[in-house]
Fold:
Amino acid sequence: MDEFKFFESFKERGEWAELRFMADAMRHGYKVLKPWGDSQPFDVALHFGRRIVRVQAKSTSFRVGTGYTCQLKSGSGRPYTLDTIDFFAAYVITQDTWYLIPARVLLGKVRKERLTICPMQRTKANRYSYECYRDAWRLLRPKPGGRKPRRGGR
Structure:
C-alpha cells in the first residue's frame, strides 16, 4: 500500500472505497442505502422503489503483469453467496476505474476467489473476461420482473 500510506489499514481503505462507490453511484443517478455497521453481507444497496440491488465494494492497487488483482474474500470470514450479493463493484484505485460485475459471474458454477482486471491494456478478443463490466453502471438497474426483495426475516 505504498502509494496510499495515508490509509492505516486495508479496512480503512475499504471504507474509503465504499464512500467512493456511493458518491459515484449517486453521480450516475442512483439512490444509495448504507447498512448500519458491518452486520450485513453487503456494503451498499441501491434503491429502486420496491427493489434493492445489493453491492459489495472491493478495491485494488495490486498490479500483476498487465492487470490488477482484486481479492473476493469477506472480512468477516463468511463466504459471499448469490442469496446475499447482487453485484461486486471492484475499484482500481490507481486507474480511477470501476468494474461492476454481476455476482452470478463470480459466484456461479465456478466460484472466483480473486479476479484480474486490466483497465490500461487494450482489449484483445477472448483475453480479458471482465472488460465488458468496466464502468458498466447501466447493469446495476434491476431488470423488470427480476428478483424481488424478501419479506420478513432472513
Notes: Confidence is low (pLDDT under 50) at residues 149-154. The first helix runs from residue 10 to 27. Residues 2-140 form a domain with the Trna Endonuclease; Chain: A, domain 1 fold (CATH 3.40.1350.10).
